[in-house]
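Design a sequence for this backbone.
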């Protein structure tokens, strides 16, 4: 072992080994992995080794598909047998809604390139898995690329392949301390100290402690998990083919063949956390005693699904632990505020996600950004609030217990909530507000007409549809009041603020007293932000954006900060309300002490609104005239009361974010994580119209110019009108023309005011002309659609300019 490396990877489980392999593969060979015991001696040795493609999150499904394809490659490269059994796999649906969901997901998989799936009847499924009872099964999805592997062999294969490419690894070497230096890190081990530029926390069950070694509190916790392996099952022994990997979602079990018996794993509803502060250092290749009382119900369902196992013995019980983040996705990437400290933790399914995690992290470290959009696993998708132990316990427990439970897009889950509430929260609740959550904050969805209203859970339009329709009508014809605490606000100041912003944004900076939509690009010219820049004219600027991206944007700002610039996140200080709708000016004029009618569209300034000294911007997300009134937290309740009183004569009504999402799609306004993601470019998303080509240098300029002057993007953003009477597109549904997939939906919603089911989509450029007839699968059913000109509501933008 040398005393200096470029990278030290801490942890020799499947994730650390995959990171090591990918670093070496992409050209960084001065890298070492340290393992305190033997390779795979954390969670990895006792995993069930199941690999399957299905994941409710399309980004994670794509990551899993990459990992599965990689397995045979590393087997070949390393020469290490990984016991790969590609048996194919089944996912069973046991309720009508689940069957609908599975059919919808089958189409979404087609969108993201997973095209080895097929839908089966219960009888067809049973032919492929003859030991299964079809009781209660309504349908199934088959995927070719599913099966199982030998876990220890797989970790060994990653490590061996990495070593063949020049990387090193050492067992029986425990990292005990981390010391940050000017150039990187000192890694203090029980075998001596190593100096390096980067450390990677891939410590699995010990990720919490290895985080704390660097002063980092990661939102991660281990939970226990059971599986059993049976003695020989006669039907299995007699079969001429292997049983497929089978996931019974309604039964909370997964099953695969194990020699001549089967392995049945259980996602326990009655979950149990373990060692929330990290596994003990003396924890070795140990297991917990099985806890049958905790899993009795799921076990009975498993026995009913595979009746023949009732007659054979159970050979082995495994009750082991593995780690979860609050939303179940990995925590990957550069940890904010800790230069050179990288996370590769909370990988719940290391054998089906570890390959993709390793690839993503290695690309990020070497090239500065991953190739694909990594938002759904970015460690910076959480803020400091997620360090709280109870928050971690509630959210990780909720995810674990619901792992196989059907989720609905309009479902609100309770874990870790309510946490942060805007000051007027209680008054708004009394007015009927129904809340969603963004990051730590409760955000208004809509205002129910009565306390007794219960929204039904559905993949289609819910019974809240008419309520949102009425809120949209208020926005388009009258005046609505919307709590905008759920926007992010950053203040930029200092002598070099203007020069810094000019470099950071591809857009021309707004003049004093003006605001502008501002595009931020990465060095490779891909999107990094769809923000709004406000120049208050007193030397301070605001950057406004999506609330849930607060830590993510702050990391970017800090990574690019210059001397003479201060960036402050105002998210704990400033909140506000927006007035939206044609009658909003009449309301604000009643309260403004200054002449606010002189404030033009995209103007901003300081005004006295009633008793509140507010920063006001005339902006519009809905396509209507709108004023965003920003106040301090302590003034939120008073501001709401004054606006409601002033608006009474105009029929003011409170409205929520569901109406915002409907009105914004009627304007074809894109949003982050839907139309705008880190793997898309300005040309693809029409964000190029905001680029100031004639200004000086800015981050991503060369790449943006290359795109502009090149052949153009293969796919571009369009708006679709879909012929759908009961459901709307949501995202990732395939778009078809002449029997060929030409693209996919980026987001969809019902346009209540236009009376159209609308979607935005990325489609092949030669099929992007308005008038092109296409079709879209919405909740699994193919529906006719047509590409329309952008902004079906008020295309000339007269309403918002007022
Ligand atoms: C019962 C069970 C069944 C499962 N089934 C599946 C399955 O079918 N498919 C699937 O994909 N996943 C499955 N999993 C999950 C899978 O085991 C984990 O996702 C995976 O093992 C995580 O790998 P890791 O490398 O992140 O962590 P670990 O395997 O925990 O590896 C971390 C390593 O870091 C080392 N380490 C920690 N601290 C230090 C230090 N300070 N210095 C040096 N070394 C250190 C540890 O010794 C350990 O070897 C299952 C898990 C369980 C419990």
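Sequence:
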């Amino acid at each position: 072992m040398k005393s200096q490396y470029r990278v030290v990877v801490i942890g020799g489980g499947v994730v650390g080994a995959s990171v090591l392999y990918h670093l070496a593969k992409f050209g960084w060979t001065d890298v070492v992995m340290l393992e305190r015991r033997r390779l795979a001696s954390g969670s990895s040795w006792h995993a069930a080794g199941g690999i399957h493609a299905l994941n409710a999150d399309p980004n994670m499904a794509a990551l899993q598909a990459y990992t599965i394809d990689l397995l045979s490659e590393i087997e070949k490269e390393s020469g290490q047998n990984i016991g790969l059994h590609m048996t194919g796999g089944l996912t069973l649906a046991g309720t009508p809604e689940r069957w609908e969901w599975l059919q919808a997901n089958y189409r979404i998989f087609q969108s993201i390139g997973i095209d080895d799936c097929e839908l089966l009847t219960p009888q067809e499924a049973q032919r492929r898995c003859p030991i299964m009872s079809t009781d209660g099964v309504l349908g199934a999805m088959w995927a070719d690329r599913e099966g199982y592997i030998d876990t220890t062999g797989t970790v060994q294969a990653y490590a061996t392949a990495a070593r063949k490419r020049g990387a090193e690894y050492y067992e029986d070497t425990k990292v005990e301390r981390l010391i940050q230096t000017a150039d990187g890190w000192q890694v203090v081990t029980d075998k001596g100290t190593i100096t390096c530029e980067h450390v990677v926390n891939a410590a699995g069950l010990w990720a919490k402690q290895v985080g704390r070694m660097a002063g980092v509190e990661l939102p991660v916790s281990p939970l226990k998990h059971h599986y059993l392996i049976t003695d020989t099952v006669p039907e299995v022994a007699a079969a001429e083919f292997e049983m497929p990997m089978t996931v019974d979602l309604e039964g909370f079990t997964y099953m695969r063949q194990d020699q001549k018996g089967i392995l049945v794993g259980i996602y326990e509803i009655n979950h149990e956390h373990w060692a929330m502060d990290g596994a003990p250092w003396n924890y070795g290749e140990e297991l917990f005693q099985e806890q049958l009382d905790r899993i009795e119900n799921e076990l009975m369902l498993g026995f009913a699904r595979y009746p023949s196992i009732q007659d054979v013995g159970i050979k082995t019980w495994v009750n082991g632990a593995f780690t979860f983040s609050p939303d179940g996705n990995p925590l990957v990437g550069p940890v904010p505020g800790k230069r050179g400290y990288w996370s590769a933790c909370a990988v719940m399914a290391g054998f089906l996600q570890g390959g993709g995690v390793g690839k993503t992290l290695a690309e990020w470290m070497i090239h500065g950004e991953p190739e694909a959009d990594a938002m759904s696993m970015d460690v910076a998708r959480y803020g400091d609030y997620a360090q709280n132990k109870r928050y971690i316990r509630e959210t990780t427990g909720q995810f674990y217990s619901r792992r196989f439970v059907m989720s609905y897009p309009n479902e609100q889950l309770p874990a870790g909530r309510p946490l942060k509430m805007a000051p007027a929260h209680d008054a708004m609740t009394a007015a009927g507000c129904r809340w969603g959550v963004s990051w730590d904050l409760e955000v208004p969805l809509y205002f129910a007409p009565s306390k007794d209203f219960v929204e039904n859970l559905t993949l289609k339009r819910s019974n809240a549809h008419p309520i949102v329709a009425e809120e949209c009508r208020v926005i388009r014809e009258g005046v609505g009041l919307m709590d905008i605490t759920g926007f992010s606000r950053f203040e930029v100041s200092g002598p070099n603020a203007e020069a810094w912003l000019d470099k950071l944004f591809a857009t021309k900076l707004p003049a004093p007293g003006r605001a502008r939509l501002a595009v931020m690009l990465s060095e490779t010219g891909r999107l990094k932000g769809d923000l709004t820049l406000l120049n208050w004219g007193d030397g301070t600027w605001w950057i406004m954006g999506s609330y849930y991206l607060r830590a993510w944007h702050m990391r970017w700002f800090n990574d690019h900060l210059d001397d003479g610039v201060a960036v402050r996140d105002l998210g704990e200080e400033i909140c506000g309300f927006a007035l939206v709708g044609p009658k909003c000016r009449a309301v604000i004029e009643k309260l403004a002490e200054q002449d606010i009618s002189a404030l033009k569209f995209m103007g901003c300034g300081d005004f006295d609104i009633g008793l509140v000294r507010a920063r006001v911007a005339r902006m519009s997300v809905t396509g209507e005239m709108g004023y965003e009134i920003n106040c301090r937290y302590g003034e939120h309740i008073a501001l709401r009361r004054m606006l409601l009183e002033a608006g009474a004569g105009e029929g003011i009504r409170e409205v929520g974010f569901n109406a915002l999402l409907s009105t914004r799609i009627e304007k074809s306004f894109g949003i982050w994580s839907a139309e705008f993601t880190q793997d898309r470019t300005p040309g693809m998303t029409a964000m190029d119209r905001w680029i100031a080509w004639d200004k000086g240098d800015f981050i991503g300029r060369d790449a943006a110019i290359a795109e502009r002057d090149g052949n153009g993007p293969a796919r571009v953003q369009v708006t679709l009108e879909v012929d759908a009477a009961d459901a709307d597109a949501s995202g990732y549904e395939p778009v078809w023309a002449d029997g060929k997939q030409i693209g996919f939906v980026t987001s969809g919603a019902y346009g209540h005011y236009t009376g159209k089911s609308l979607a935005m989509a990325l489609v092949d450029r030669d099929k992007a002309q308005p008038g092109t007839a296409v079709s879209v699968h919405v909740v699994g059913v193919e529906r006719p659609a047509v590409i329309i000109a952008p902004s079906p509501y008020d295309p000339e933008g007269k309403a918002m300019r007022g």
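The CA atoms of residues 521 and 527 lie 5 Å apart.
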